[in-house]
Amino acid sequence: MLRAYNAEADNCVRSLRSGNVVTAKRRLESAMAAIEKLGAIMEMRVSPDFHSLRVQELELTADYQMKVREEKEKAREERELLREQRRVEAELAAEKKRLDKERSHCLNALEALRAKGDMSALEQVQGRLSDIDKAIEANDYRIANIRAGYVYVISNIGSFGPNIVKIGMTRRLEPMDRVRELGSASVPFRYDVHALHFSQDAVALESGLHKMFASRRVNFVNERREFFFVSPAEVRDALLREAGGLLEYTEMPEALEYLQSLSRWPQDQQQRV
Q1: Is 10 helix (H, G, I), strand (E, B) or coil?
Q2: Looking at residue 18, what is its pLDDT?
Q3: 43's torsion region: left (phi>0), alpha (psi -120 to 50) or beta?
Q4: Fewest CB atoms less than 10 Å from the CB: which of 114, 153, 191, 244?
Q5: What average pLDDT is seen over the chain?
Q6: How far apart are CA 158 and CA 175, in angstroms?
Q7: Would you call 170 exposed, middle or buried from its count of C-beta atoms within 10 A (0-12, 13-18, 19+)?
Q8: CA 86, CA 157: separation in Å to the nearest integer?
Q9: What's the whole-model pTM score?
Q10: How many other CB atoms sit within 10 Å of the CB of residue 67?
Q11: How far is CA 28 from each of CA 1, 7, 57, 105, 251, rounded to the nearest angstrom?
Q12: How far apart are CA 132 and CA 125, in angstroms?
C-alpha cells in the first residue's frame, strides 16, 4: 500500500503542470482515502504528516515550474527588447542618413538658385532646409536619449473584451509599426489605438502608469504583461496628470474587424458577448 501511494505521488509530481496542482492534490488525496479504506481491517493508513510532506512536494514542484517558466519568459522578452532596440537604432541611423542626404541636396539647390537669382524658389528651399535641420535635431536627440519614445494606450475588445487596455512604450520612429506588430498573428483582431504620446522620458512615464494601475493588472504573476482592467478614459486622465498636454485621444475603439465578424459567429458565441 505504501508503494502504491508513493507511486501515485511520484506520478503526480512527474505529470505536474503549474496550472493543475489542485487536480494533482485531489488525485493524491483520493489515493490516500482508497488506501485507508482498503486497510481499515488492519488499521492501516497513510500518516497525515507524511501525506502533508508529499503535498508540499507537489506545491514546491509547481512553484519551481512557474519560476522556470517566468525565467524563460523574461529571457524571451529580453531578446525581443534587444531586437526592438536594434530595429530602432537601424531606423534612426537610416533616417539620419536620409536627412543628411536631403540637406545636402537643398544646399546644392540654394547655390544654384542664388546663381540664377530666383528669390521665390530660394525662399521655398530655405524653408525646407529649416524643416530638415529641425528633423535632424530631433533625430539626433532620439539617438542620444535612449529613454525618449512613445507611450501607447491600445485595446482589443474582440480578443479581451471592453475596459481592458495595454499600456506600453516604443522608441520606433513610427510607433504604429509596433502596434501593427502586436496585432499581427498573436491575437484574432487588430488593436485600436486610444493614445500615442511622445515623451522625453517614455520609460519613466510608462513605469508611472503601470504603478498607478498596479492593483488592476490582468496578470499578477508576470508583471511584464502590460494589460490592465482600466478604461481608456481613465488612462487619458492619468496621462494628462502625469504628462500634461495630450494632443490626440480616441475614446471609443473602432474594432472594425471584430464588429464585422461578430454577425457571422455561431449563435451561441454571439449570445455570450
Answers
A1: helix
A2: 63
A3: left
A4: 244
A5: 86
A6: 22
A7: buried
A8: 31
A9: 0.60
A10: 11
A11: 13, 10, 12, 78, 51
A12: 10
Mean pLDDT of 10-32: 87
The string of pLDDT tens digits covering residues 80-119 is: 776 777 888 888 888 889 999 999 988 888 888 888 877 7
* Model pLDDT for residues 174-230, shown as the tens digit of each residue: 888 889 888 886 889 999 999 988 888 888 899 999 999 999 999 987 777 899 999
For residue 192, what is its C-alpha cell?
485600436
> Among all chains, which residue has been given the C-alpha cell 532646409?
129
Torsion of CA 212, 215, 218, 222, to 10 degrees: 90
Percent of the chain residues past pLDDT 90, beyond the cut = 30
Main-chain phi, psi angles of 211, to 5 degrees: -70, -35
Q: CA-CA distance, 150 to 195, in Å (whole number)?
A: 10
Q: Which three cell numbers stand for residue 63?
A: 512553484
State the pLDDT at residue 272: 61
CA dist., res. 181 & res. 191, Å (int) = 10
Contact 170, 142 (CB under 8 A): no
Copy the grid coordinates of residue 131. 524643416
